[in-house]
Amino acid sequence: MSGLDALLLNPSLHDLLAIVKGARNGFVYGVKVRFPHALIMAILFGRGDWKTRCRVIYQATKQHALNLAKFVSLYKILLLLQKKANGGKERSSDTFIAGLIGGYVVFGDRTAVNEQIVLYVVSRVVAAFLPRAGVPYSKAPMPDGSTLARPIPPDPRYFSVFAAFAWGAVMWLFKNRSESIQPGMFNSMTYLYRDSEVWENLRTLLWHNK
């Protein structure tokens, strides 16, 4: 083992280096998630020439990647500070407090990218309150010897009701209060439900939307 590897594996530096790797993983994950999404949206719904579209793709990818890197770093820093302030002990409320502050600082500004990320998180939080299927959590061993509960799917009966209510609500909103729908979803629903009502010939019926 080299001297550098020994330094990186020093237990006393673990918490600090975890912040560095958290920032790295946040940035990489942001690029992997946002770039293909922004590219597809630019192809389907983009306006202007490709120079303008590429600029939009770059800006969206940059903001998503940097914000995730910032949030993961800040979250881990806040956890570490709370742990030290509590005599080295972790409390169940530490994660909520760190997420609360990090969410406000990093994602509090309303931008298109932040709005999409926050709405994604909200949907997962809401879905987490659905009753789970009648299967006990399985435990996956972690590198530090602890265990992490693996997700299990929602109970199919409750999920069916949840899906029905979600689609019924969003279709009513699109018809009656479309100004309240998030822009990305509004564009998708317009393409699916309103644009499909209009055509001029066989070409715009089957080959091109307009």
Q: How would you portray this structure in words?
A:
The protein has about 210 residues and is mainly alpha-helical. About 70% of the residues lie in helices and about 5% in strands. It is built from eight helices and two strands. It has helices at about 5-10, 15-45, 50-85, 95-105, 110-130, 155-175, 185-195, 200-205; strands at about 140, 145-150. Strands 1-2 form a two-stranded antiparallel sheet. Helix 2 packs antiparallel against helix 3 and helix 3 packs antiparallel against helix 4 (about 95-105). The longest helix has about 35 residues, at about 50-85. The protein is globular, with a radius of gyration of 22 Å. The relative contact order is 0.06.
Strand content: under 5%
The helix/strand order is: HHHHHEEHHH
Number of helices, counting only DSSP H or I runs of 4 residues or more = 8
Strand order in the largest sheet: 1-2
Q: What is the average per-residue confidence, as pLDDT, rounded to a whole number?
A: 89
Total E-strand runs: 2
Q: Give the helix level as a range of percent.
A: 55-70%
How far apart are the first and last residues' alpha carbons, in Å?
Answer: 63 Å
Task: Summarize the main sheet.
Answer: 2 strands, antiparallel
| Structural category | mainly alpha
* Rg, alpha carbons: 22 Å
Question: pLDDT below 50 for ≥5 consecutive residues: which ranges?
Answer: none
Q: Please tell me what the overall shape is.
A: globular
